[in-house]
Amino acid sequence: MTPSEDPRSRLIFALDMGDGLDETLRWVEILRGHIGVYKIGKEAFTRFGPEIVRRIQGLGGKVFLDLKFHDIPNTVARAAEGAVRLGVAMFNLHALGGREMMETTVRAAEKTAREAGVPMPLILAVTVLTSLNDRDLSELGFQQTTRALAAHLAATAHRAGMGGVVASPQDILSIRKACGPGFAVVTPGIRLGDGGVESDDQKRIDTPREAIRNGADYIVVGRPIRLAKDPVGTADRIVEEIARGLELRNPA
Fold it and tell me: Which one is predicted more confidently, 152 or 194?
């Protein structure tokens, strides 16, 4: 999966909210035509299961299955086969699971896609969570900075045949240097800089325009849209920022 020329295709909305399935899916209707992909994470998938993926697809939406698989290679490969059969556009796993896990998963996904006659999804490796900073990594026993570790994990994922990574906007430039332009970078930790989200657990953040300008292919936004007084207007504003970032990346 690659983004189209329409900047809306680069905006992924995090769809983890709502007490019921119908209430959650209301956001698909609200944001239809204003974003590119709906992200289903652990909250929604644990509550609603595969049905929420099928319902979004039935409404014409693309799905990023954000379950961050991390286990022995065989277990993750089998989970990946299920994700492929669900027809998701993207799914992810943790790069810290190792190169063998990633290579095994890619092979299993490719085989399943061929046999099922479905498009191969974009498989992403999660590098370093945006809720972690250098101090957090030190407490966990890592000697590298977040930026250095993210670039190292991205390079490993690239060699393993992964399609891209999930990484902080602050790590984009180092990942691009390590992996080149053809490797997808999906960036959470996006904020508008207007103070619209309080009590935030994201530590390494940036604006939509700067993330895209620095080389992100997709940005993931949840609370800034969901908590806005005008969610559709906010989504459109973010798309405008994406377009501006693309212009700054590729000046005429």
Answer: 152
